[in-house]
Amino acid sequence: MDKLDASLMAMRRRIEGLSPEEIRNISREELHMPTTMRDFEAALTKVSKSVSASDLEKYDKWIQEFGSC
């Protein structure tokens, strides 16, 4: 997840249910809404893992065998 995903959640909330014409008529100031913890939590639910469980297992075995830096 990045901050952009979370910050877009506030904008999505603002335009939800509006027609394209209504969205075009919203001022920039109205679209700049604060990002909330709820926005971050919603963004987290949309993110997929970038490292698999098997990769983590391989890493753990490597650390046990060779140690860390």
Q: Report the major sheet.
A: none
Helix amount: 55-70%
Q: Tell me the distance between the termini.
A: 28 Å
Q: Which structural class matches the secondary elements?
A: mainly alpha
The geometry reads as: rod-shaped
Tally of helical segments: 5
Q: Give me the Rg, rounded.
A: 20 Å
Number of domains: 1
Keywords:
69 residues; mainly alpha; 0% strand; rod-shaped
Describe what this molecule looks like in 3D.
The protein has helices at 3-15, 20-24, 28-31, 37-44, 53-66. The model has no long low-confidence stretch (mean pLDDT 84). It has 69 residues and is mainly α. It has one domain (3-66). The chain contains five helices and no strands. Helix 1 (3-15) packs across helix 4. The longest helix has 14 residues, at 53-66. Helix content is 64%, strand content 0%. The chain is rod-shaped.
